[in-house]
Protein: NACHT domain-containing protein
Organism: Pestalotiopsis fici
Amino acid sequence: MADPLSVVGSAVGIVSLGIQVVHSIYDYYTGLKDQHSSVGHTLRKTDHLLGILNNLQSRLKCRSFRADETDLVVNVQSAVDQCNECIQELQNEVDKFKMTPVEGLCAAAHQLGRRLAYPIRQSTLLKLNEDIYELVVHLSLALQLLEHSTIDRITDSVDDVRTVLDLVRSSQVSFEIREWLKAPDASTNFNEACKMKHAGTGMWFIKSSSFANWLHQSSSFLWLQGFAGCGKTVLCSTAIQHTLRHRRSAKDIGIAFFFFTFNDESKQDASAMLRALLFQLTSQLNDTPRALKELRDKYCPGTPPEQALLDCLYKAVREFREVYILVDALDESPRNKYRQSVLECIQDIRAWSQPGVHLLATSRDEPDIRRRLEQAGCETLSLRNTGVDKDIASFVSSHLRADPDLSEWQEFFDRIEETLIQKAQGVFRWVECQLKALLTCPNSEYFLDQLLESLPETLDETYTRMLQNIPSMYKHDARQMLAILSCAMRPLTVPELIDALATETSENPRFNSKRRLKSLDSIQKLCPGFTEIDTHPGNGVQTVRLAHFSVLEYLESERDAQNGQVAFFKLCRQDANNLMAYVCLTVLLEPGLAECEQQIESIRSQYPLVEYAAEYWPCHLQEGKGSDLVEKQVMRLFLETNGAFDTWAGIHGPFGHFDSKWYHWSSPAYVASLLGYHSVITAMLNEQCGDNFGIDEELLHECDDEHQTGNTALYAAARNGHKDVIQVLINMEANAECLVPGQDTPLNLASDIDPKSIVELMLLYREPMFDTQHKHSPLSAAAENGHTGIVEILLDYMPAVQVHRDYALLRSSTRGHQDIAKLLLDVGVNVNFEDNGDTPLTLSSKNGHKAVIELLLESGANVNGGSFQQPLAAASREGHEDVVELLLDRGADVNGRVDAWTPLAEASRGGWKHIAELLLDRGANVNGHSTILVMTPLVVASRAGKKDIVRLLLERGATAEWDGLTEFYPFVEKDDREAVQTLLRNAYWAE
């Protein structure tokens, strides 16, 4: 066999040649990048390849190989050898760039033209990219082989996990934005997945061509699909760790991940995913991006809609050269509740067509998921393969020998291992259950034989047997625990679950402190194998959850339901939520709470479940649709005089926290209206309730001018669209036009949320007062939110003069609602109506709504209108190149007004090079500036640190004045010598 040193020397030689050739290509295209935008992608890929080559060369030169690593050396050489042909092809391309002598002036000129055109031909760039991609794959494999001896140790190290957690918990984003965005903490899921990972498992995936392609191929999308319990989440966590290692310290590579979680409501919808991804990526930037600040300014204190989050995420992604997004367990987003919007967001991210965005998703193979992901162009990798089988074998062998409680079976380890591996069929979860069953098996060969010979064939059979083994005296408590864990809105802490189990749920419910379990072990004894304990990595708080998503599916399915013992435990999600609402309300009605004399912290410490109960009982009631027993408890909470309602409002209440302003106005009638409890409102109207619980006159007719809340009962009902409550209150002649300055009327709120029947009801019972001077009138609210049907209704009711004074066209143009804009224009609304200097055309241009822009222009909009900012400047600032071109074609003044920033200055500030080029090509004054803000585009670009724009403006004749130093300061402060030298070379030296 060849000497390892000579083999390594040969590999180093090939890599060195590769560095020389690729460097030549990189240098050549660097000279073209400002002249031809089409070479930018090739240049970035070439730079990435150079980094890999230099890294591999360094490792080969520094690495000393042991005598037992001959196979490793040969495999590295094989991977490098496969690069030889590609390197030679790249060398040939370099040769074609060079001039070769020819005879004759005409021939020389002809050859020069071909030589200059050749490097930027599409076919040339395509061939280069193909060779670069192939080199990246082979060289990355060589790097991975070299790291093989340490890769497992690094992957599973505490430092590696901590690095991931630090990356996504950065404090770059301000506290105010973090508190407002409320991004779910995906690091807790990552941490738990890492704990479940057995050393060395998952490496088949990391070493696969699928993972290598995903890491290095442009705009890659990989879908890992497998059946329940095959280890998808653990594989996702492994991929996150190795993606981090691939990133190393490169600040221009972003990583973000999210784990959908069946037992945590806050981690199940598209908004949660987008907020988590957005927070993680922006945390990796040096400064909070402007887009995120603007998002908060626009939507705080509320949560932005999904489209706004997507738009902001897109802008954050563009701050990086490469972004890796990993999303686990798409199937744990409820199918009939959130999943469709989640999959649509995945498709939207793919539709960005950003070369540097790499997307990885995991899930079971379900029809809706497969259809959507295949439409988005994913590569599919099935987890039913030999790699998973080897991981299971490694897991079983290690677990048997590492668990001290299994040491008594040591003489039978080989037999146990062989049997479990043979029957696992790729399901880690099945193996875990059998190992737990082994712990309870009496220690004799006879009982071991019985256990191994009667192993359940499937996961379902395993769960059936586990339920049958629960002692009869525990069955009712076990069922209550399974039901509670199946519907909990967030993971319950150990003390919270203990109190939930201590609540008796008979027809005479009560909290019984004697039923409190004394330890965590007692919880696990109720349902052995069905629960897991998670420990938060930061605060050490322990929470309890169902052990696996397959447990929830099994309990809610009809499978094995004909078995009487099993049928007792089967769950209906609606019934489970009713049970949990019943438990929560019973805790809140506990007499002991009143004895704490409104000392909130004392209540929380003595009754751990009370905070969860106060926050989530309305959610469980809504999900469960209610029952007679639950309805009775709701009535008690609102109508009894024992202080239970006040205690609830003090602990949490409907507004999420205790606040004296809201507390004063949150009467039972107001809150019942807010939550839509028709039966409670009706009961309050009943004379038998007494004066204490009737609806106060002030809640029907008066506004809270002092606190600026506008909190009438009708306002509360309209806020959430509760038609039946609104009907009752309107029958009592509740004031529908109560308006506190800066707040909405009930009619406005109804227009906001689009229940047409509610708006019609209010208009039918009351003669509406349409205050169009209030910018958020009912018509504006409906127009802004895209509620076409309500706009049509309101236009029928409103006098023409009020329609023409309304801000509706501005609102619909801002949001891009073309159909509503057309309705308003058809009834004669002023197409050039202004608000603070902005016209509908300015606002639609700012937000890039091209269809609305075309409609407005066709309807006579002034293309240069707007006393604050003109449409062209607004579109240039936000980077909407297609809109800029449209406005220029329709006659927009390329230099804008003399008293505002020019369109070129706006484009320069945003760093939109293509727009700046377009404006300059159309005649923009490169040194133009306003009479008020005396800053040229060059000054603006310099202050914003946009070097590409600075270079472009200088090439187009911009003047840098040394006398003022304005352009130089930002780059001097950053020690950016290249930029300073560029400015100095072009500086005008004033006398």
